[in-house]
Amino acid sequence: QVQMEESGGGSVQPGGSLRLSCATSIFTFSNICVAWFRQAQGKERDWVAMMDTTGTTNYADSVKGRFTISKDAAKNTLYLQMDSLKVNDTAMYYCAADFGVWQCRPEASVFKYWGHGTQVTVSS
């Protein structure tokens, strides 16, 4: 069983920064795909950023240039650095992962393992 647990959410003013962490055991597996998704109240869950097993990253257009996905495999942790936060970044953020993935795609169906989410609120 792969463990996934987010932390680091909170409240911040527009223009501020937060770093989300996801403690996970996924890095012990091969051909992994890891990602962050978010779900605003009353809306569908949207993909934010992903990283494949080679370390290649991709971002949704809405966060490109502001958010950075990274990992520290030695610490079994996935990160999402969020800078220049906007009000419409407010959402519950989820980390997601799977292994044995031959094509990492920004689709929720790709990911078998999910955390329970951490709330990010951006308001003045």
Structure description:
- The chain is an all-beta fold and 124 residues long.
- Helices cover 0% and strands 48% of the residues.
- The chain contains no helices and eleven strands.
- The strands form two sheets. Strands 2, 4, 5, 6, 9, 10 and 11 form a seven-stranded mixed sheet that branches.
- The protein is globular and about 45 Å long.
- The termini are far apart.
- The mean pLDDT is 96.
Which secondary structure elements does this structure contain, and how are they paired or packed?
Elements: E1 4-7, E2 10-12, E3 18-24, E4 33-39, E5 45-52, E6 57-59, E7 67-72, E8 77-82, E9 91-98, E10 113-114, E11 118-122
Parallel strand pairs: 2-11
Antiparallel strand pairs: 1-3, 3-8, 4-5, 4-9, 5-6, 7-8, 9-10, 9-11
Question: What distinguishing features does this structure have?
Answer:
globular, four-stranded antiparallel beta sheet, 124 residues, seven-stranded mixed beta sheet, 11 strands, 0% helix
* Poorly predicted tracts of residues: none
In total, how many beta strands?
Answer: 11
The helix fraction, in percent, is under 10%
Largest sheet: 7 strands, mixed
Name the shape in a single word. globular
Termini gap: 40 Å
Strand percent estimate: over 45%
Calculate Rg over CA atoms: 13 Å
**Tally of separate helices:** 0
Task: Report the order of strands and helices.
Answer: EEEEEEEEEEE
In short:
With 124 residues, the protein is an all-beta fold. 0% of the residues lie in helices and 48% in strands.
